[in-house]
Amino acid sequence: MKRLAFVLFLALAVSASLPAQQASRLDSDVAMQPSLLAPSGASARDTALLPALSLSFSETPAPAPVPSAALPDAPAAPAAPQAGFGGDIGYRWHLNAGYEYVHFSSSQFSANMSGLHTTIAYSLNDWFAAEGDVISAFGGDVFQPGETAKYVLLSGGGHLSWNREPHRWSPWLHALVGWTHVNPQTAAGSKNGFAVQAGGGLDYLLNPRLSLRGQVDYVLTRLYSQNQNNVQAGVGFVLHF
Fold first, then answer.
1. What is the pLDDT of residues 103-116, one digit of tens each?
2. Spatial separation of the C-alpha atoms in residues 17 and 11, rounded to whole Å
3. What is the DSSP string of 102-113?
4. How far is 119 from 97, CA to CA, in rounded Å?
5. Residue 233 lies in a domain
6. Which of these, 66, 177, 182, 210, is most buried using a 10 Å CB contact count?
7. To which H or E segment does residue 35 belong?
8. What's the pTM?
9. Peptide bond into 166 cis (omega under 30)
């Protein structure tokens, strides 16, 4: 009976001492962990700084700001071209077409004719342009039925314009030389001859691309070995481009 009591007492003592030993062992392990991180011979105060230093090194540094590349200045928008002959160097080409009335008078016959005119001009500056002109017109019978009057004038020269800014009206003058052809044929001489055309007109601006034109010209022709003094007038539209 005494032996049984002694064994029970010994078992209770051993079981009571085990938790205390485990706790002391855990404390010693925790105390040894800083010593593993710290170099040999480091003091306790130096070891205590290691967790703070390790946290500072583990933080990712903020990226340095990258200066943005300077963008080049955007090019200025081109100025819109002005309209019409006067002050219009943006629209250099000017195409005119319309109705033409021609009064032809000579010692052989006289005729009133109607037809079309076409003019193309190219502006060299804001007041002067090179111009080419084509006029064709037809009239009634001259000497006998079926023998109608026909008139063709091809000429080229210069065109002077008055600056329209800031007005819609633009007066102009031109002078041209060229060649003319007149039917019918007569016994007095050739139906082809030299011609000089001089006159002027007035343009009215309808919009930046289109103008209304009226013009009157004096035409000197050399036909039938004589000079003829003729008049022609026309109206039409001018396209600027």
1. 999 988 899 999 99
2. 10
3. EEEE-SS-EEEE
4. 6
5. yes
6. 182
7. helix 2-37
8. 0.62
9. yes
Count of C-beta atoms within a 10 Å radius of residue 78: 7
Distance between alpha carbon 57 and the CA centroid of its chain, in Å?
59
Joined together, the tokens standing for residue 241 give 């481009």
DSSP lists the bridge partners of residue 1 as none
Number of Cβ within 10 Å of residue 141's Cβ equals 12
Q: Which of 104, 80, 105 has its CA nearest to residue 91?
A: 80
Cis peptide, bond prior to residue 184, ω within 30 of zero: yes
Residue 3 is encoded by which pair of tokens?
Answer: 């032996």
Do 34 and 97 sit in the same domain of this protein?
Answer: no
Q: Domain check: are 118 and 186 in the same one? A: yes
DSSP symbols for 136-203 = EEEEEESSSTT-EEEEEEEEEEEEEE---TT-SEEEEEEEEEEEEEEES-BTTB-SEEEEEEEEEEEE
Domain span including residue 202: 93-240
Distance CA 90, CA 122 (A): 11
Convert the pLDDT of each residue in 137-194 to its tens digit: 999 888 888 788 999 999 999 999 986 565 788 999 999 999 999 988 777 777 899 9
Q: Are 117 and 100 in contact (CB under 8 A)?
A: yes
